[in-house]
Amino acid sequence: MKRLIVNADDFGMTRGVNRAIIECFQSGSVTSTTLMVNGESAVEAALAAADNPGLGVGLHLNLTSGPPTLPPDRVPSLVGMDGSFPGVRQAVWRLTSGRARSHELEEEIAAQIGRLQQLGIRPTHIDSHHHLHAHPRLRSAIRKTCPRLGVTRMRGFHMKAGGAKSMAIAMAARLPSSGRPMKAPDRFTGIDTMGGQDPSAPIQRELARRGDVLEFMCHPGYADQDLERATSYNKPREAELRSLLSEGFAAAIQEAGAQRVSFAAL
């Protein structure tokens, strides 16, 4: 039987994102989520997860926005002058140029996992904000750090790329990296459906392709003032929320005959 993981990113970003993700889990559409420990509503997210057993919760590793988990002077090569992560473009440049030091990457990854555990979460897996772990240097750091901390599953990027963004991520993910590969779904999709078309038909097509486990990524949320301050990707999250809660989405999954699971099933 085909298995489907529906993972909602950005748990902990805002209260409106938390509420949307929990609504989707309770409706049966979302099976998994990843929590950003430096989000303004991370503690609330952890409490919500505790009230909803069965929801798989992983780490949404964040090295692109907000403050680091470690003191900024412990990870100077990862942060800007203000002590915060410098944005996705600057983060990619630092990884590619070698300015981001490997030991600082590994220590911050470990600190974010530790923070998640302090919040009472046993992480099922790891992915990253802005898909930064497609970069081979960060992927290598994750593979070195996470297994010794009990995190053995990671989002993979085995996908049929359509748009420019998904193509760039897929190409980066094919570059060689070090370390022993971690468990990942056979296929991944969701980048090209963000905030746009109803994902039901694309999911059905992907489930028909080879591979036992498909991960579908989504970003449900309520576009309130907190979300508008936190990210430019705000109003489209409500479109994703409506799609995930629709009868058509549930029917499409049922018609495909897929079992909905979390990363814990890998």
What would your notes on this structure say?
The protein is an alpha/beta fold and 266 residues long. The protein has one domain: TIM Barrel, CATH 3.20.20. It has helices at 15-27, 42-50, 88-97, 102-118, 136-145, 164-173, 200-207, 225-230, 235-245, 247-256, and strands at 3-11, 32-35, 56-61, 126-128, 187-189, 213-218, 259-260. Strands 1, 2, 3, 4, 5, 6 and 7 form a seven-stranded parallel beta sheet that branches. Helix 2 links the parallel strand 2 (32-35) and strand 3 (56-61). Helix 7 runs parallel beside helix 10 (247-256). The longest helix has 17 residues, at 102-118. The two termini are 14 Å apart. The mean pLDDT is 95.
Low-confidence stretches: none
Strand content: 5-15%
Quick one: CATH superfamily? Glycoside hydrolase/deacetylase
Terminal CA distance reads 14 Å
Shape: globular
Q: Give the rounded overall mean pLDDT.
A: 95
| C-alpha-based Rg, rounded | 17 Å
SS element count, helices: 10
Q: Main sheet?
A: 7 strands, parallel
The CATH class turns out to be Alpha Beta
CATH topology: TIM Barrel
Order of helices and strands: EHEHEHHEHHEHEHHHE
Secondary-structure-derived class: alpha/beta
Helical fraction: 25-40%
When the domains are counted, the total is 1
Judging by the overall fold, what is the CATH architecture?
A: Alpha-Beta Barrel
Number of strands: 7
